[in-house]
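Support case: user asked for a sample of complex input and structure output to validate their parser. Sending the pair below.
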Amino acid sequence: MSENQNRRATRAAAEQFIQQFQGQPYPASRKVYIEGELPGVKVGMREIELQPSLIGGTKDNPLFAPNAPVRVYDTSGPYSCPDAQIDIRKGLPALRTDWIKQRGDTELVTDFGSVYSKEQWLDESLQSLRFESLTERRKAKAGVAVTQLAYARRGIITPEMEYVAIRENLSRANMAAATEARTQHPGQSFGANLPKQITAEFVRQEIAAGRAILPANINHPEIEPMIIGRNFLVKVNANIGNSAVSSSIEEEVEKLLWATRWGADTVMDLSTGRYIHQTREWIIRNSPVPIGTVPLYQALEKVGGIAEDLSWELFRDTLIEQAEQGVDYFTIHAGVRLAYVPMTAKRVTGIVSRGGSIMAKWCLAHHKENFLYQHFDAICDIMRAYDISFSLGDGLRPGSIADANDEAQFAELKTLGELTHRAWAKEVQVMVEGPGHVPMQLIRENMQLQLEYCAEAPFYTLGPLTTDIAPGYDHLTSAIGAAQIGWYGCAMLCYVTPKEHLGLPDKNDVKEGMIAYKIAAHAADLAKGHPGAQIRDDALSKARFEFRWQDQFNLSLDPERARSYHDQTLPQESGKVAHFCSMCGPKFCSMKISQDVRDYAASIEVKQLDAAQQQAEMQKKAQQFRQSGAELYHGSDSQLEEPQL
Amino acid sequence: MSENQNRRATRAAAEQFIQQFQGQPYPASRKVYIEGELPGVKVGMREIELQPSLIGGTKDNPLFAPNAPVRVYDTSGPYSCPDAQIDIRKGLPALRTDWIKQRGDTELVTDFGSVYSKEQWLDESLQSLRFESLTERRKAKAGVAVTQLAYARRGIITPEMEYVAIRENLSRANMAAATEARTQHPGQSFGANLPKQITAEFVRQEIAAGRAILPANINHPEIEPMIIGRNFLVKVNANIGNSAVSSSIEEEVEKLLWATRWGADTVMDLSTGRYIHQTREWIIRNSPVPIGTVPLYQALEKVGGIAEDLSWELFRDTLIEQAEQGVDYFTIHAGVRLAYVPMTAKRVTGIVSRGGSIMAKWCLAHHKENFLYQHFDAICDIMRAYDISFSLGDGLRPGSIADANDEAQFAELKTLGELTHRAWAKEVQVMVEGPGHVPMQLIRENMQLQLEYCAEAPFYTLGPLTTDIAPGYDHLTSAIGAAQIGWYGCAMLCYVTPKEHLGLPDKNDVKEGMIAYKIAAHAADLAKGHPGAQIRDDALSKARFEFRWQDQFNLSLDPERARSYHDQTLPQESGKVAHFCSMCGPKFCSMKISQDVRDYAASIEVKQLDAAQQQAEMQKKAQQFRQSGAELYHGSDSQLEEPQL
């Protein structure tokens, strides 16, 4: 099969995949839109419908009380909209274009700013790989910073900021459910600021203070705005991208859609293989979430993998190439300074960051200071012209428990603090990357030092893994650390898949990693006391207690898995209304007995009775309880004895 | 197929399963025995052999340094001993019998102490289910307590205590590895006492103080002694047991062996279905780890599932029946007091403990105080005669985030504290059960209150789950909480499988739950600073850095999975010496680049040079580095370009 035929075939597979998405939305779910005040602000959420609760009555005339639907944050963009006409060859609707135009501070670019981009465009042989539609490219007018930070500091509330405020405001979105729900447990947020209602003004303040970023390249108008900051919901990033030994463009687009279906708030394209430029274009044009990259990877690819041959000029051209495509944040390893490299000499696992090891090699080969550090201000000048956020890379993060919190790691963190301030001086948004492998007792120190050195800029960690002994399960070893550091204030968690340390993740791994990290992030939201976070837990537990099995499944992070696990041992339809499952069977189900107990206990009203009356009342109630025991079953389970399996 | 034929067939399957175990030990592993001073004390551990490290030399004359093998704690008993003659119809060797006899404080029982046991024995129809060998039964001589607690208080160091001291002493077992290893990170143990060398005397003190228990029924002489306590390695319990709608005796024996293969320190048999008595006998006779039960389940089965028909007399008979079989600890829900039951009325998920809901129902139906509470001293009198430990049940634990740390839960905990002292007064060993579902910010309070109310008796929690929203993944939602509470001082963690809330776990679920919990327990050991805990992490990371892939796999918790995940994208044998994997490919592997960097950085010796000399030295080194780059590969990878996949 020719390469072209190959591509067409895999592209057809990707399109079929999208149709499957739209045809198989999450169960009992519909897309709802909450409108803002500013024009064009329409925030999509997923609304999960619930069955009513049986609250009394008789078998022939049961009494029901409705359960308010539950709305949850939704990262899947138009892909979960059954009516949306999606064509991956055209990309997603550019929902931010009007907002960008109206700001009047950008202009269309008529030629490529990057030499490499131009070369790629003129290369006929790449025709079949190219994204098929032409895209507008913009750039800031001369001397202007077009970043959300710049606007925020000037007191401007952009439509993006309002969008985000609505998105984060789980309480308001769930007003009906919240009224029914009990008061959430107060959180322990270690000094964070979590207002009961998140307003657009609050968002602006947070961005202006540098405590949050809203990554949104003017050339990525397709994104649904989102915010990364300690005082907002903890976010999760998924990594995709090919390598020299694996994967194709279409597989990467599929992984993108798959990751966002499972809740990825941003996605990093970490490709290190072939056609990095083309792969990225397809990804960005079809991504409803911000896209991050490590430009150094592509730069290294351009010099044939020889780190010593990297240069500032080549890197600069790569930044512009990616900026024009619409990358929303760059990981820049400007903290790997020459003097720090020898500090890693005695480590067990040296430098585990790809970017970090590349820069370290360059520094040593030239015996010069890291050119990213040297040219940092020039990098800022590029980024402020497109509103690309920094993700200041932790090139010297620890790759083993033994290396955690060592001199090299914190020397770099100090430098990242210095660079944070320099970026802010240029009105560029900044977040700071973090570890890695850290045993639990050392996690808090990481958070505290980062808050101090980086003046509360958002922290973005990879895990951390809390032990090294379980390759194959590092989504789990790291979810333990991620939940904790999220609780302590980390703003975004970069997921880890079961393939970590072993190979490139496939789609299953992406899902496993995503679910593990949505769990960690949500556990952190609960622990911090993010208003409204507990609504979903409460709704699911209520459904569980009432044996509304479908509702329990539908409210969960992975309804299909919950349902299929249940059905493995109790597949009949009657199982879905059964007041037990195969764990304990009908006689031992504590929830079933518990309902009987509750109904009885609630009926005891003894406060107004004297001792003798109480005694008599008790005997009477006890007798009633024994007699009524059999009739306290809810639902149509008269035929439910021990089911035949 | 007749029932008998059915049983023989499934028994043959179980035997085949055992042979598979013995035929397929963990890779690169052998069983080693460390002898104690007291006669018969021989502690088995698993020793993992490692490849040597290439440290220099030339391609024709490479120079190697050996890597000391790593010894790890082993719960699989004789099943991992290739020479052991195992016949599940005969059970395991009774390694403790001489120790028990020599204490001279027990006597053989010639008749059944339990009416039920006698009935079962006389029932011909149960012949085919019965464990096939006759077993000695013992009981304490009149008035004597034969518990490890009683001995410890009298200053006696039993062989069991010495056994345990050797088992826990990872540093001493790994003396060779420990000398090579770097200093472990100091832990934060929140006031625990973790001596560098664990002695038998230390063990005795901990047991005497009630801070640790050594569960070891005199009728379960087959166990390899183990200890549960805050100042020891965090332990993990696995649950097995059939239910009315699932599983057979042989499947349960297989689950036992499977769980101990994956590291279960104790196993609870929570059967609620048919042939509970017979199932338990097969399990105990073949178990190298302590076995726990909830006697209330079987008692309920005996009254046809009608909780109101339970009585103290029936329960007492059940205790004796199980005591004579050799159950090592009983979960007793004596804290579910009548006055507490109404406190659960407003909960979201009521009472989720099976035993708790059963006792609550009984209390309300009779309007009487919990008969387990009323007869607690009599229960102690039985348990002290066999050395059965209490696991004081948390019948009122929270089953949802909303219910965490509520009035009912802590009222019960206070009562468990009172009962702890009452049991100690009778010289009965005690551990205390705990939650459940607890958001992270509320976990620490649980540990602190339990330490206070229960005078540091060991805590034994179920998770806790840190969010309710992920049925299907509750091994993960709870591993997050379990790691934390283990760090804070919890002594044993009861595992949770992916099937939690959905159905009875199968073998795969048992494994997934076990790995998740071994991770949580080990993360806690590292965080507490248990001496020697970091040796395995360091050895694995060192192997990873040196691309000793087989060693990395072999040191991991699940070598087969690590290997197969790696091989999914890089299956050739050359992949096992490759200095990269499919995650990044050969050009981008940070570990490979990192080795180059390290070798160079370590070679810089500039301290004695002046500025000009330094400059010249640097240029020379830089040139050397560039020239030598290609020759710094280790291993036979001259043929490793980009592999053909």
